[in-house]
Each structure stands twice: as C-alpha cells, then as structure tokens.
Specification:
288 residues
C-alpha cells in the first residue's frame, strides 16, 4: 500500500464534496428512483469512457479473478444504490442517513476478516462516534409508520457498501479508478435495463440537469476520486474519513437552499469532525 500524504487526504475531501452533491441534486429530481439510478449510471459511463479513451487508459484486466471481482463489485454497487434509495423512500432522509453511515463500523469489523488485516480498536470506537454524530445530525428520528423497514434497508445498504469497498480493495485497487467506474456503471446500466419496461424512463427537460449532475459530479468525478483513495489508505480509514460527507452535504444545503442546521446538528457535525481529525492525525503519524 502506498504511503498516504497530504495529497491523498485532500483528494478524499474533494471526492466527498462531489459525492455530497447527491443530496442537493437528488432532492428534486422528478423521476422514480430506479430511473434516476439508471440515468446516473449511464451518463457517468458515457463520460468516463470518453475520459479513459482521451487519457489512453487500458480497459484490459490482468486475469479472470479481476474480471469476476469487477462484476461482483458492480452488482454490489447497484444493490447499494437501490436499497439506499428505497430506504429513503420508506423512512426519511434522517433515518436513511443514520443507517447508511453505520458502514464505517461495519467495515472495521469486516476488514480484518476479509483482508486478513489486524483489528484496530480505534477504528471501531471512531465508527461508533460517527454513528452518534450522524444521529445528532438527523432533524428527527421516528420509527413509526413502517419506517422500521426503511431502517432495515438502510442497514442492508450500508453492509453492501462496506462489502463493495472491501471487494475493490482486495483485488482491483491497482486498476485505474476511472476504468473501475466504467465497468461498474456499464454493468449497473445493464442490470437496470428493465426500468424501460416498468417505468416511464424518458426524462423531462426539467429532470435532465439534475441527472447530468448526478452522472458527472456525483458519480463520474466523486466516486472515481473515492475509489482512487483505496491505493493510499486502508478501507476502514477511507470509510471513517469519508464520513465528513454529510457535513459537506449540509453546507451545500445552506448555500443552495438556505437551510440552517439546528444546534444538535452542529454538535453532531463536531463529533464527526473530531473522528475524522483523530484518524487524519493517526494516518499522518505513520508517514512521519
């Protein structure tokens, strides 16, 4: 694993800013969730293919094991997107956000088992701190009216996301992030092709700017930069540091919608920032 430096830390933060645009862009996109996911994946695939061809990146994989890993990670990513969207639909943004950000704690438990790495107690403690911080960020938390199913789907989505990240790290961390995302978005588009028979999949002119933003900013740029970070950090470290994403999402909400967070949200953000700062300092010490 390459040694981390200031540049990878900055890259991860930039990635989280772009990934955090999903909240702003996805909030008002006037299409069903599966349709939004298909267009998001298809637009990102087209843009990434053009970028990889321009840069001269090779799409060739080393062996059949990498090919199978790419396929598995793409299926997991698609399942993560679908379960997360439906978790939000069945519950609320607050419950969905709390559920999905259990994935750092899940990752700290799974990484030693999947990647045969030593368990780091600090990571689990910081994961719990992040979960509580996200809980405080949530404007309300109510499991009434069937939202329990939404919470369960959100937890399932978090588990799938953790497994996808570990899968990428284990076998294909040496493949260009843009190339990995090409495969993943193309496969996701193929998996979701049935939406053309199940929904009205042709977007309106009103929906296109949001879908283009999700494809370009959130997926093509954000997720590509995020994948590239696995070259420099452990999966647990990337998961913990990426938990700054909801804070960037809240800041974007303040800028674009003038949504001022409550004091409890400020407290939750402070806890998340503390966890990120502790892990950043720990990572920095390994370099010096």
């Amino acid at each position: 694993m390459s040694r981390p430096s200031v540049s990878p830390l900055l890259q991860l933060n930039v990635a989280m800013v772009f990934v955090g645009t999903s909240g702003v862009l996805g909030r008002f996109v006037p299409v069903p969730a599966p349709v939004a996911i298909w267009w998001r994946a298809s637009i990102a695939a087209a843009l990434l293919i053009a970028f990889c061809l321009f840069k001269g990146y090779s799409f060739k994989l080393r062996n059949n094991k990498q090919t199978k890993t790419i396929l598995l990670s793409a299926v997991l990513m698609t399942a993560h997107w679908i379960t997360y969207f439906y978790a939000l639909k069945l519950s609320s943004v607050a419950i969905g956000m709390l559920a999905i950000f259990t994935y750092p704690a899940m990752t700290t438990l799974l990484e030693p088992l999947v990647l045969k790495k030593p368990f780091v107690p600090r990571h689990l403690l910081l994961g719990v701190l992040v979960i509580y911080g996200v809980y405080l960020l949530a404007p309300s938390f109510d499991l009434a009216d069937g939202a329990t199913l939404g919470l369960a789907l959100g937890l399932l989505s978090a588990l799938i996301y953790a497994l996808r990240n570990l899968t990428v790290k284990k076998e294909i961390a040496d493949v260009q992030g843009s190339v990995v995302m090409v495969y993943q978005t193309v496969i996701a588009s193929i998996i979701l092709l049935p939406i053309w028979w199940l929904f009205e999949a042709v977007p309106t002119a009103e929906a296109m700017p949001y879908l283009l933003g999700l494809g370009l900013l959130t997926t093509a740029i954000g997720h590509t930069l995020f994948l590239a970070c696995f070259r420099f950090f452990s999966v647990s470290t990337v998961s913990l540091l990426s938990c700054i994403q909801p804070i960037y999402g809240i800041l974007l909400g303040v800028i674009f919608f003038e949504e001022i967070p409550e004091w409890s949200a400020v407290g939750g953000g402070a806890l998340i920032l503390a966890a990120v700062a502790i892990e950043s300092v720990a990572v920095g010490r390994k370099v010096s």
